[in-house]
Amino acid sequence: xxxxxxxxxxxxxxxxxxxxxxxxxxxxxxxxxxxxxxxxxxxxxxxxxxxxxxxxxxxxxxxxxxxxxxxxxxxxxxxxxxxxxxxxxxxxxxxxxxxxxxxxxxxxxxxxxxxxxxxxxxxx
Length: 124
Description:
With about 120 residues, this protein is mostly beta strands. Helices cover about 0% and strands about 50% of the residues. The radius of gyration is 13 Å and the shape is globular.
């Protein structure tokens, strides 16, 4: 089993930046591909970014390309989401997820483990 805990969410003005952190425990972190998803009120949970278990490959949703960066530090069992140039439409609960493979992609069904989420609110 893998336990995931997100942190770093909060309130930020449009155009600002925020970095989310996901701390993992319970299994060897380096053996899992990782992803970030988000869910706004009344909307489906949507893909944001994903990274391979080695950290060599990353992919992003079109809505965040050029603004968000996913990274990981396997020695610290941690994955990050750096969010720049934030927009009000980025407001959502952000979830960290893990898949027992090198690559989870953009499909929710590929991920077996999920954190509780952290709220990100962007004001305008």
